[in-house]
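Q: Please design a sequence for this.
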């Protein structure tokens, strides 16, 4: 991938801060590509009892974690605060209160050390996680970037020119995000939160042809008119969640689910083997078929966009990019089309601050500096 390596007067140390949802993270990245530290304090334990993120609790946890997480990111990078060349922070999209914790801290810090403050769109951060992981691999622009996480399922047409990436949003979900569907289906089946990694781990034990799920083409007329998006690139994941619920109701699975939920909830550190012990063949088939259907849908629309828009490479990012079946199937689909494809490492797939610091580097080089009026943009879009 083409890289910006101007700005040679500085050592290029950027502190990234990410607090958009339920991870408090700080990272030091040199020149947008060398991760010196990437500290993530997860709030899973706080939210798991509720089966989803509770915004008020998220803000409180960020407040509690932000100072130690930033201190640890600096110390494990072996960097003093005064060595930094810039402070980068997620401005949105995300939870307003959660974003504000990171933004307020970043502003105060940048002011105190008299260094530039860079505002980063969380979605662009996810795309940069792929670029960070791919390092010197050559990708051709334009690319199709799929950002697939708990809050987002977006397709971008991404172009690189003169040191900067620009994005055009060409596809999106009209209802639930793919990760949200993983989490809701897992919850429905009595699995712990967040459900994506549990479904990923259990799916390989089930028959993915056991249950037939279908995704019909999405045609929401007002939406199409407003955004002029090709319906081939639109997603909808609320239907499959309802189909799983209906399957559970018509196949007498409620008792087994309650038993699984009670056992796993009673265990403070449940393992995949613990969950497996409470999953019968029918449940495993349902899990495998659900994952297969979602992965197939993501693959079909990503490659349809790549083909129709003439993309020369594919970038996959966001929490769901950690999914093993997604990686295997997209990698082989890309190989048959002779398209280069890249994923972040598993730890860079879910929310982290290294991707925020990496995305800030081209902006710092281009002097795209945020001003002191920077505030949280909970509904910020990209492209
Ligand atoms: O990117 P992320 O950390 O946060 C958002 O920006 O949303 O993504 C979290 C989402 C959750 O829905 C989680 O269940 C899902 O990513 N996820 C996975 C896997 N690991 C995390 N989904 C499927 N398979 C996985 N291995
Ligand atoms: Zn995210």
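A: Design:
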């Amino acid at each position: 991938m083409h890289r910006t390596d101007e700005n040679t007067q500085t050592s290029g140390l950027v502190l990234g801060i990410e607090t958009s949802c339920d991870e408090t993270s700080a990272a030091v990245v040199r020149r947008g590509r060398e991760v010196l530290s990437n500290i993530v304090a997860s709030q899973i334990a706080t939210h798991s009892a509720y089966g989803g993120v509770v915004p008020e609790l998220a803000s409180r946890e960020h407040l509690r974690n932000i100072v130690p997480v930033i201190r640890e990111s600096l110390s494990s990078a072996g960097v003093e605060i005064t060595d930094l060349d810039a402070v980068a922070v997620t401005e949105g999209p995300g939870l307003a209160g959660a974003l504000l914790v990171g933004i307020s801290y970043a502003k105060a810090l940048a002011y105190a050390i008299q260094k530039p403050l860079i505002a980063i769109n969380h979605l662009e951060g996810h795309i940069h996680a792929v670029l960070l992981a791919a390092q010197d691999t050559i990708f051709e622009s334009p690319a199709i970037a799929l950002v697939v996480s708990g809050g987002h399922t977006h397709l971008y047409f991404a172009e690189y020119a003169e040191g900067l990436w620009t994005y055009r949003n060409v596809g999106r979900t009209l209802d639930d995000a793919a990760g949200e569907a993983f989490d809701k289906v897992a919850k429905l089946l009595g699995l712990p939160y967040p459900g994506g990694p549990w479904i990923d781990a259990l799916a390989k034990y089930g028959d993915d042809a056991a249950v037939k799920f279908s995704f019909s083409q999405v045609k929401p007329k007002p939406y199409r008119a407003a955004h002029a998006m090709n319906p081939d690139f639109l997603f909808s994941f609320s239907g499959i969640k309802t189909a799983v619920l209906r399957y559970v109701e018509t196949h007498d699975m409620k008792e087994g689910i309650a038993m699984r939920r009670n056992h796993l909830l009673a265990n403070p550190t449940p393992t995949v083997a613990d969950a497996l012990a409470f999953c019968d063949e029918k449940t495993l088939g349902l899990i495998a078929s659900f994952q297969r259907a979602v992965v197939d849908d993501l693959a079909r629309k990503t490659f349809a966009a790549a083909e129709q828009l003439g993309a020369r490479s594919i970038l996959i990012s966001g929490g769901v990019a950690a999914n093993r079946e997604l990686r295997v199937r997209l990698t082989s689909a890309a190989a048959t089309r002779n398209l280069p494809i890249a994923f972040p490492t598993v730890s860079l797939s879910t929310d982290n601050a290294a991707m925020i610091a990496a995305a800030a580097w081209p902006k710092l080089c281009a002097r795209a500096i945020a001003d002191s009026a920077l505030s949280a943009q909970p509904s910020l879009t990209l492209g």
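Q: Thanks. Anything notable?
A: The first strand starts at residue 13 and ends at 18. Confidence is low (pLDDT under 50) at residues 1-7.
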